[in-house]
Design goal:
By secondary structure, this protein is of the alpha+beta class. About 30% of the residues lie in helices and about 15% in strands. Helix 10 packs across helix 13. The N terminus is likely disordered. The structure holds 6-diazenyl-5-OXO-L-norleucine.
Length: about 525
């Protein structure tokens, strides 16, 4: 948000706290160190002063496959998926989008020049920060891969060991790269010295990036998906995010059901059945709109949803295998979501990711840039699950210059009297978290209630209803099982950030997910 540089006076924002190795924004003081590694997807509505520039837009700075991408690089000799190349090292990294996206936002929507927005990041990279326990945990988790590469080792094991909370974690290489970016804008990252250093480092370690791949990266401004549900306007992420289509399809199916009249087990049953059908379509149809023709009119049509609703049995789970086939998790977590409303009514919902923990664990030489592992978000091997258990085919196959499908679902829900800015990390669960958060908001819940509510998730395959421990009473679980649902407990997931604006009282309330100690949901004056 620092990049759009709205004056955040009496504004509400909800974001993770500063995590220099992974986070990007929320205020200028915390736009930083690794932002160049992740794509961002942003929904942004400049200004509620309707007579001026009131419009919603979506900034897609998702990574792209390099020109020399080839499926064989992600297969073992026996034809099975190679999880190492798709998740670790330079082959796992897509051509980054964030720097282009941030520069675009600063240029088109910002009040502050990029140079000013980036300065606090440079200061933090130069002066350093005390690592949080979360960063220490990430380094421990990824140590084996980080130690494969000299620049990754130098960055994350200064003086030969991982930093502790008593140490100061500095990154001079990254500070240099940030300064070039601040001075020259996107060209400072995609052309010249920084680009050449990254390409040389990637190539030396077996990757395929070229300077032409970087120089040709383009941010895309897209039209967000808009729909109405129970009198609320939903504004959400279009492809190459899959979230808006999935959330839209689920809400269209649910629109014909009086959820309030149902007991908890049946409410969950209908929501799960809608998720199942929408995720099936996700697997079959969705991909980069610049490459794939998607039947958006059908997928978001209320009539199509009517048909899907009719196929739901009131007392029995539909087995995913009964639906027309498309083609099952151990995700790491390195995604961040910011929800912001400023004093002028500008709203930003922004999700950023390097994909799994510390991305590819590959630092591109002296640039200091830690590269993502977003290539795993492509359907690298048709019919085989990615790190989040998502399966795809042609629509999301890797092709030179194509963007990989994302689950990121930054969204707005706009009612007559209240509105919400909402989003979260969590891989494939992002879509169901956002959906459940929207439903809770429309049921009148407050920001803290929305972020705290227990979650469940179904994504067509694997055909299981995942629930957070202790989230459902035994009799509800028993009823769901009796209907044929395979209900399984899993560790809690997500890190949602929500801001709610009650226009009747002009009150903004912000909340961060209680599952994360690092949340920073608050309403405050920032000048
Ligand atoms: O774009 C996507 O869908 C994934 N790269 C998101 C990964 C994610 O949310 C991991 N962290 N929680």
């Amino acid at each position: 948000m620092e990049t759009s540089s709205c004056r955040l006076e009496r504004s509400g924002f909800s974001s993770p706290t500063f995590r220099p190795w992974r986070s990007t924004t929320a205020r200028s003081a915390i736009c930083i160190m690794c932002f160049m590694l992740r794509e961002i997807t942003i929904t942004l509505t400049p200004c509620s002063v309707a007579s001026q520039i009131s419009r919603n837009t979506f900034i897609d700075s998702r990574e792209m496959a390099p020109a020399a991408v080839k499926s064989a690089d992600y297969l073992n000799a026996d034809g099975t998926p190679n999880r190492d190349t798709s998740l670790n090292g330079p082959l796992a990294a897509g051509i980054p989008g964030s720097p282009a996206g941030l520069a675009y936002i600063a240029q088109h929507f910002g009040k502050l020049p990029l140079k000013k927005s980036v300065q606090p990041a440079i200061d933090l990279a130069e002066k350093g920060v005390h690592p949080t326990t979360s960063l220490m945990h990430s380094i421990e988790q990824r140590a084996d891969v980080l130690r494969r590469y000299a620049a990754s080792t130098a960055k994350f094991f200064p003086n030969g060991k991982a930093p502790t909370t008593n140490d100061i974690f500095r990154d001079e290489a990254q500070a240099r790269t940030l300064k070039t970016f601040a001075e020259k804008g996107a060209d400072g990252f995609y052309k010249g010295e920084v680009a050449e250093e990254m390409v040389a480092a990637v190539k030396a370690a077996g990757g395929t990036w070229t300077t032409a791949d970087l120089a040709s990266y383009q941010t895309r401004e897209r039209t967000p998906i808009e729909l109405t549900y129970n009198g609320y306007k939903i504004i959400t992420a279009p492809p190459v995010s899959s979230g808006g289509v999935v959330v839209g399809e689920v809400l269209n199916i649910l629109a014909g059901i009086d959820l309030k009249s149902l007991d908890q087990a049946h409410r969950i049953h209908y929501e799960v059945e809608a998720m199942r059908r929408a995720f099936r379509d996700h697997n079959e149809y969705l991909g980069d709109p610049d490459f794939v023709k998607m039947p958006m009119d059908m997928l978001l049509s209320p009539y199509y949803a009517d048909g899907l609703r009719q196929s739901i049995l009131p007392e029995q789970a539909t087995k995913s295998a009964w639906l027309p086939a498309v083609h099952a998790k151990e995700p790491g977590m390195h995604t961040t979501h910011f929800s912001i409303i400023d004093a002028d009514g500008n709203m930003v919902s922004m999700t950023c990711t390097v994909n799994t923990t510390l991305g590819s664990a590959f630092v591109a030489g002296k640039s200091g840039v830690l590269l993502n592992n977003e290539m795993d978000d492509f359907a690298l091997v048709a019919g085989q699950p990615n790190a989040f258990g998502l399966i795809g085919g042609d629509a999301n196959a890797p092709v030179a210059g194509k963007r990989m499908l994302s689950s990121m679902t930054p969204s707005f829900v706009i009612g007559k009297d209240r509105l919400a800015v909402i989003g979260t990390p969590g891989g494939s669960t992002i879509m169901t978290q956002v959906l459940e958060g929207m439903l809770a908001f429309m049921d009148g819940k407050s920001a803290p209630e929305i972020t705290a509510q227990k979650r469940f998730h179904h994504q067509y395959l694997p055909d299981t209803v995942e629930i957070e421990p202790g989230s459902l009473p035994a009799d509800v679980i028993a009823k769901l099982k009796a209907m044929g649902h395979d209900v399984r407990e899993r560790e809690p997931w997500g890190n949602m950030n929500v801001v709610v604006w009650d226009k009747t009282t002009n009150t903004k309330t912000a909340a961060s997910d209680p599952r994360s100690k690092a949340g920073l949901g608050k309403v405050q004056v920032i000048r």
